[in-house]
């Protein structure tokens, strides 16, 4: 049995499912497998809020159409949760609690047997408080249960012709804000405008980290070299979003860098 067939069997046993669908490679693979295993009994749901970067919803719609799964949106209100706005290290717990409460209610109301996520085996080694929220709402993680890490996920997505197979990770905009700095709509919008300005310059693998009046740009390796050769447009793009100061990090972008800093600190505190 192939890994795709194994995934399909896992999902088929559920009978019907909602897929928490961002349009990224992980949730797209789960959605594609669900479409094949469940047909019309699978529904992809994208959550819309101020933390969703410009262009992500349109991308999710395109992927859903390409893989043949019905797609809908819901509005989530994580910003109404004080724990999310406070932005302690468990911010993602509050965000995912909002999401999974809404999806669980929708599944119950419309008769879907399960809610699925795109969590994969690599997520277990990172700081992922959202997995606790998922456990509390009995969310099913087909990729994690099958022991599939990110590279295996991309390989299977390529095999199925999933359009987002090579898509860089694009977590919510709040992930650009250091823990302890409050999350609010204005800050999320400022980050979004800065990143959109950089994308208009042709940059694709990027984050703008929010440090008060300073926007610090992280870029993928090849793109970082381009920016270092001609930094002025990059810095101007970030300042155009309202930052008084702009910086380019001299280290290549690494997904989850704010989480890694926290994880290292937590390790030192508990050792």
How would you concisely characterize the structure shown here?
The protein has 12 helices and 7 strands.
Per-chain topology:
Elements: H1 3-12, E1 17-20, H2 25-38, E2 42-48, H3 56-67, E3 70-75, H4 82-86, H5 91-110, E4 114-116, H6 130-136, H7 142-145, H8 150-159, H9 185-200, E5 206-211, E6 214-219, H10 221-229, H11 231-239, E7 245-248, H12 257-270
Parallel strand pairs: 1-2, 1-4, 2-3, 6-7
Antiparallel strand pairs: 5-6
Helix pairs in contact: 1-2, 2-3, 2-8, 5-6, 9-11, 10-11
Order of strands across the main sheet? 3-2-1-4
Low-confidence stretches: 261-271
The number of distinct structural domains comes to: 2
| End-to-end gap | 43 Å
- Strand residue percentage: 5-15%
Query: Please, what is the average pLDDT?
Result: 93
Would you tell me which CATH topology of the largest domain applies? Rossmann fold
Fraction of helical residues? 40-55%
| CATH-defined architecture of the largest domain | 3-Layer(aba) Sandwich
The CATH superfamily of the largest domain is identified as: HUPs
**Structural class per helix/strand content?**
alpha/beta
CATH class wording of the largest domain = Alpha Beta
Strand elements, count: 7
Secondary-structure element sequence? HEHEHEHHEHHHHEEHHEH
Number of helices: 12
The major β-sheet equals:
4 strands, parallel
Rg result? 19 Å
- Any idea what the shape is? globular
């Amino acid at each position: 049995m192939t890994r795709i067939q194994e995934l399909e069997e896992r999902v088929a046993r559920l009978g019907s499912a909602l897929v928490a669908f961002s349009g990224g490679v992980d949730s797209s693979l789960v959605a594609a497998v669900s479409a094949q295993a469940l047909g019309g009994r699978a529904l992809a749901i994208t959550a819309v809020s101020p933390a969703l970067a410009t262009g992500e919803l349109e991308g999710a719609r395109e992927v859903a159409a390409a893989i043949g799964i019905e797609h809908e949106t819901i509005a989530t209100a994580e910003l109404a949760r004080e724990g999310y706005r406070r932005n302690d290290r468990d911010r993602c717990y509050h965000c995912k609690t909002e999401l999974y409460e809404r999806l669980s209610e929708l599944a119950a109301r419309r008769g879907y047997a399960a809610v699925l996520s795109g969590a994969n085996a690599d997520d277990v080694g990172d700081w992922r408080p959202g997995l606790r929220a998922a456990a509390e709402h009995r969310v099913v993680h087909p990729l994690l249960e099958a022991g599939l890490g990110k590279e295996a996920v991309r390989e299977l997505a390529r095999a199925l012709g999933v359009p987002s197979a090579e898509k860089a990770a694009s977590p919510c905009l709040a992930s650009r804000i250091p823990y302890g700095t409050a999350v609010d709509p204005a800050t999320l919008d400022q980050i979004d405008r800065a990143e959109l300005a950089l994308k208009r310059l042709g940059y694709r693998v990027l984050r703008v980290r929010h440090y008060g009046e300073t926007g610090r740009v992280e870029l993928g390796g090849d793109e970082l070299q381009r920016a270092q050769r001609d930094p002025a447009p990059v810095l101007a793009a970030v300042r155009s979003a309202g930052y008084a100061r702009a910086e380019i990090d001299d280290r290549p972008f690494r997904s989850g860098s704010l989480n890694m800093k926290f994880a290292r600190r937590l390790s030192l505190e508990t050792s």
